[in-house]
Structures are given as C-alpha cells and as structure tokens.
Amino acid sequence: MKNGLFLLPVAQRIEIMPAICKKQDGTVFAAMTWLAFGLSWLAPTFASAYLEDRIVAVVNSDLIMLSDVKRECEPQLQQIKRQHRGEDLAQRVKTAESMALTKLIEQRLQLQEAKAKGIDVSDMELAQAAEQLKLQGSTVDLADPRQRRSLREQMLLMRVVDREVRGAVMVGESEMKRYYQEHRDRFAVPEEYLLSQILVRSRSADDVPDALAKIRKAMDELKRGERFEDVALRYSEGPNALEGGKLGLVRQGELLPAIDQAIAPLVPGAVTDIIETVQGFHILRVDEKKPRQYRPFEEVKREIQGLIFEQKAEERFQSWLAGLKNKAYIEIKF
To answer: Where is the PpiC domain (predicted)?
Structure first.
C-alpha cells in the first residue's frame, strides 16, 4: 500500500493492461505490445513532450497523467512558489501534487461507479447547468471540450454521491433530541444587558490626565447621589449622552472584554468602577439583566437535522469511498 492506496506486485500490475486493450473480436494485446504500439508512432520531435508527460496512476481502466496532476494543483502551486524557496518549496510542491493525485484517483473511482450505476448527464442538463452558473457569475464554455468534460464530471460526481451516499442517510426524531440535550450550549442565547454609560474619551496619551480627572468628577457626583442620567448629560462624550447615556440592549460578548468582565457580577441598578479601555474611561450602570436562555427544541429542530445529516453523510461517504478503493485496481507510478 502506498499513500493509502493499493500497489500490486509488478507481475500483477501487467494483468490490468490486456483488459484495457481488448479488441472487438476478443483478441487481447499483451501489455508490453500495447505500450510499444503507443510509442512506435511518436515522431522524434515529440519525444521530449512525451518524456515531460507520463502515466502516474492506473485506476482500473483509467490512466492519470502527470499533466492531469499538474493541472489540478496549478493554482495552489503558484501560491506555494510565491511564498516558499529551496527545500521547503520542493517539499510543499511534492505534498500538493500527492494530494492532487489522491483527489484525482478518488474522482475517477466515483466516476467509474457512476457509469456502472447508469448515472449520466444529458446535453440538455449540461446546458442548463452552464446557464445557471452564468447567472451566478461563472462562465463555462461548452464549446471547449475540456470545460465541457469538467462540468459534466462535476455533475456526475454530485449525482453519484447523492444517490449512493446522501440518499441513504436518515435522521430520526430521537437522534435530534439526543443531540439537543448533549449540545445545549450550542443553542444558548447569551446573557443580555440593558446598560447606561458615561464615557470620557482619551484619544492620545496627552489626553489621559484630563480625561481621568473628568471621569473621577463624574464618579464623585454619582457617589453623592446624583442621578446617573444627569451626570451622563454633563460629562459623557458617548453617542447617547443626550439620552442619559442609555446604550440599549447588548449581549454578553458584544462589549469590550474589560466592560464585559466588570458588569458580569453586577445586579440591576449597580454601577461599575471606572473602567479604562482603548476608547477612554467608562462608568456603566446595569439597568436590566436577562439571564442566559436556551432556544427551544422546536425552534432549532431543522438546524439539528442538518447538522446530524451532514455528519452522517460524511461518515457514509468515507466508508463508501473506502469500499471503492478496496475493490479497485490502483497502481501509483508517482
């Protein structure tokens, strides 16, 4: 086994080639004869081109060429070559090409399975898909054989997976309820606060002494029993100063960390100490607290169904793909 794929002994590898090369009258060319025939008509001027491209994998009756691998990972290779040099570059290129080859092998197996199951894409469906992609901002030139084949193969891959994998996945009510109980935090609504604020801004280090003196005066007035709204109107530089500093409803986690931490233990009506943040100096009053709640099961039922479905579909897909590999002839020459 190499790269997670089966590699047969040389004597067994040759057995695959006659199956590829059967003639209509039932006679069979030997593998080496087939290869010799394939090479014999190549003119000398094409020798260098042939050497640049070669077979890197045999997947049942399909051949994967080095050019296929290069084409598959070309965008990634361009990025790698911009960011890396030397041995690091060589290793990353090798890894990218190996991953591209694995992807191509898996795609060939799925396409072969689609053919075996009689799954196909008509010319009309291909045209409709191209038109839909055009509406979404992508362009496919169906007159280009390579683009036409690529779109057709992508549609076949989706169809065979839908039929053989996703179509067999079921999600029961009991599974959804169990998931809800085991992952309740995922469906929690954070604690919410109604807050009022006095903010004195400090835009630079030079502003800090004056800003601190101003916020301390505001705190002194609050301690003497002045109404928060009146103090905010006199001192606050926040956007809601004219409304008594009212910020409205905010959720835990939406505020700056220092403010979140300061108001978390407070009860409604309580006022924080002076808090310094990147914005300046703050004093906040907690006007109301809404405790953390959980969205009801019926509200999140469809969301849970989707989560479980995707998880089960992925597990089934990996099992199905492993089965295709196990029964396939795969030889890697990379």
So the answer is: 190-288
Q: Is the pLDDT of residue 192 over 90?
A: yes
pLDDT tens digits for range 286-328: 999 999 999 999 999 999 999 999 999 999 999 999 999 999 9
Note whether residue 38 is domain-resident. no
Q: How far apart are CA 187 and CA 177, in angstroms?
A: 13
47 found inside a domain: no
* Residue-range definition of the domain harbouring residue 86: 53-118
Residue 254 CB neighbours (<10 A): 12
pLDDT given for residue 17 in this prediction: 36
Say if residue 232 is exposed, middle or buried (CB neighbours under 10 Å; 0-12, 13-18, 19+): buried
β-pairing, 62-65 vs 192-201, is unpaired
Structure token digits, residue 228: 């928060």
Q: How many residues does the chain have?
A: 334
The one-letter code for the residue type at 112 is Q
Note the maximum CA span of the chain.
106
- d(CA 101, CA 73) in angstroms, rounded, equals 9
Cα–Cα distance, 214 to 220 (Å, whole number): 10
CA distances from 274 to 36, 192, 237, 244, 252 (A): 86, 21, 15, 17, 19
* 51 sits in which H/E element: helix 47-52
